[in-house]
Each structure stands twice: as C-alpha cells, then as structure tokens.
C-alpha cells in the first residue's frame, strides 16, 4: 500500500514537471520570436537613424573637419569647368559649398547640371579659405531624381520652400518694394516680393540672373508667391549683365520676357489709372501694350509728359523698356523715355 502511494506521488510529480516544462518551453519560444522581431525593428530604425544622421547641413561643416568624410544633399546652383575638372556650387537651406570633381577621379559628372538635386559624399578640404567637399569615386555622387519635378501648389501655402530659378522680370515699386518674377528649373513661374523692410537693392537682382530662393509660400490675387524672410534667403548664382539692344516691335516675342530693349514707336490710346500710364506703342502695324508705373520722382513726371505730348503731336518716341507678359499678352514696362 505504501509502495503504491509512493508510485502515485512520483507519477504526479513527473506529470507536473512535464506540464511546467512545456509551458516554459512555449513561453521561451514566444519570447525569442518577440525578441527577434523587436531586434529587427530596432536594427532597421538604427540603420535609418544612422543613415539620416550621416547627412550634414552645409553650414555645419567647418574647417576643423578637414580630412573627414561628410555627406550633404543640396541643389546644384552653378557649374563650371577648367582643365578637365568640374566645379559645382551646391546649396541647401543653410548655405552653399564648393564640390570640385577632379579629372583624375574618373567621375562622370555630365548629368550634374544647375537645378539638379544631388547627394555628395566626400572629404572635407579647404582651398583659398573656402570649404569644399571633394568626392573620390563615382558612388560619391548620387542624383536625387525625386526632387526634380516638384511643383509648388496651393496646398503648400504657409510652408517654407526652396527653389532654383531664373529671374525673368523685375518691377521696382515707388515705395521701394521689388517684385521679381522667376521661372524655376521645372518651368513653374512664381512671384517673389522683396519688401522694403528688407532694404533690397534693385541692382543686386538683375533680370536673367539665376538664384536659389527660400521663402514662405503665399497666394495673392490668384498667383503663388515665394516670400523670403531675409535678403540672405535669395542667393544669386549668376549675375551676368545683359546687353541692351535696339529692337523693332515686330521682333519682340514672348521668349524675350525679362529682356531690356530700346524700341521706337508711335504713342496711341493713352489712359491713366491710379497714377499709372497705359498706352499702345505702334511701329509698322505692330502694337504692344505699354505701361509707365507711378512713382514719386520728378523724373517719372517728365516721362509721363513726354509720352502724352508724343500722342498729341503724333511724333515717335524711343524708350528703354523691359519685356514682360501680362494676361498672356506681351507688355513693355517703360524704364526710360530717351531724348535724342
């Protein structure tokens, strides 16, 4: 009887051991899978964080980093060549840096043109007091295609955006504001107001210059604007002056938008509205709408008088004007009325 009781207790203990052991096994197995999944997620997040942290803002790269390898992402704002070497200026929201691509590296840089967004990995160097990031291999230059066709839309109102663009027209308001019309590298036309509070200098923003512009997206009278908060948010990359040519009215096309021209013609249909003077300039049966914007100076009053007198006396005048497009029609913005 005692032996039977002992066998029963032993059997019960064995069953309990098996049950507990099975439970522990299942729990450990479940725990291992969870740990594995957690580890994979943490590893992926760590890789992403490491990858993102490798990208530096241009302004954070200093001379003390000379010899170190750094990575930047930005827009090519200028490209030049010399003796087989290629020199890029790359800009992000924080600043601009030089990226020399030396001939002996064997890097094909033909696709890295102005307006393209690139990722550059290279060694930090200092040349003539300027910091550079110098790529060493083909893999150190990567085209960021996803950013090439981005359009600014009404959904972006209130956001800060950066574009590379060409200045295609400029209007200086009598109160000192400067209103630029720019065409971005993707073909989009935007207005860029530089308000008098920024103290802009009109001569610093020549028509046909290229620029990188950072500003807040707004909408005014149905047109999208990019409004810089400071003059430093407009970085000019090419300020080559354009020769002012004498043209016939019939030769002026929409593709001349932003060009300054000297033209001659008869004044017709003069009207004045809000102190602006609107008229038609006519030459050999070709007419172009023209406007003399108001200003407070005596010089503007003199221009207005000469235009009105030319209409009354029916004699031609010569003007220096900027070609623009308004409501899809050619327009001449009068800069000067020339006196022979």
UniProtKB/TrEMBL annotation:
Residue span(s) of domain OB: 71-137
Alphabetized Pfam families for the sequence: tRNA_anti-codon (PF01336)
Protein's name in the database: OB domain-containing protein
The organism of origin for this protein: Exiguobacterium undae
